[in-house]
Design a protein that fits this description.
Layout lengths: L19 E3 L5 E4 L5 E10 L2 E7 L5 E5 L5 E3 L2 E6 L31 E4 L2 H18 L2 E4 L6 H8 L7 E5 L7 H9 L4 E5 L11 H4 L13 H9 L5 H10 L9 H15 L3
Length: 272
């Protein structure tokens, strides 16, 4: 018979127990050693022990061992365990990848705003981030171009409690858009952009069912040229509704747009 061996570790050196959390699909956690944050995709049994696969909001997958105290859940250390049969229901997620808040009511609109260039940009942001924006009380408006942005910013009069974020199409070095952005950027104004000629290109081709977005010759209306190249009717409004209908979540968008919109939301909602 084995004799009892007392634990002589001083109490202040003992590790406090942490909760064991079933690694249910869509649970969002952070791996403590790498800081990788993502949603649970699956759990697997391996020769080295159980592993969990996480997917971040850009679609990147990483596999981690399910070690004790190996993850953070809402900032608190937890141990992930394999879910058992009939475990808890999956947490509901918004289209942006955030955990949904059941029964949450829209917040009264902030003084801060996010401006985008056109109606299509606004509709795409609403499709993916609409739930998050309502909870945060952020209103998105469209400008119909950026030529008048300096005057619009001046009229808006941004300040510490009324920050302004602006999303610009085709914001590349040396462009007209980049020069305008430099004129208005300040402590309470953030202008960011994506490299695409139009926000259509920010939707992944695979989500739309095409191999790639066509290259449209200079001097030709880009949207009309895309319709021609793809053999679609030259009705850009109908084409956009078709594209938008294929966007179901952040996974259907390119990272170059995802990161910029998240940056703007943080800018207008976080305190100094």
């Amino acid at each position: 018979m084995r004799s009892y061996q007392p634990d002589l570790t001083p109490p202040w050196k003992r590790s406090a127990p942490v909760p064991e959390v079933p690694a249910e699909p869509d649970l969002v956690v952070e791996e403590v050693s790498t800081g990788f944050c993502g949603a649970v995709i699956r759990c697997e049994k391996t020769a080295q022990g159980p592993t969990v696969t996480l997917e971040d909001r850009f679609g990147k997958h990483r596999v981690f061992p399910m070690e004790p105290r190996g993850f953070l859940l809402e900032g608190k250390v937890v141990t992930l365990v394999r879910p058992g049969p009939g475990g808890p229901a999956r947490p509901t997620r918004t289209a942006s990848g955030s955990v949904a808040v059941p029964g949450a009511r829209a917040r009264v609109a902030r003084a801060g705003r996010i401006y985008v260039e056109g109606r299509h940009d606004a509709e795409l942001v609403e499709r993916v981030w609409g739930d998050d924006l309502r909870i945060e009380g952020v209103v998105v408006e469209y400008l119909e171009g950026v030529d008048d942005l300096p005057a619009i910013v001046g009229e808006f009069a941004p300040g510490p409690d009324a920050r302004l974020g602006v999303l610009v199409d085709h914001l590349v070095p040396g462009s007209k858009e980049s020069r305008i952005a430099e004129r208005v950027t300040g402590a309470h104004v953030l202008v960011v952009g994506h490299p695409y000629i139009d926000v259509w290109e920010a939707v992944k081709p695979s989500s739309v069912g095409i191999d790639a977005w066509p290259v449209v010759p200079r001097g030709q209306d880009w949207k009309t040229g895309v319709c021609r190249a793809l053999g679609w009717p030259e009705n850009t409004g109908a084409a956009w509704q078709h594209i938008l209908s294929k966007v179901r979540s952040y996974k259907d968008l390119e990272p170059q747009l995802l990161g910029r919109v998240e940056e703007l939301i943080d800018f207008v909602t976080l305190p100094d």
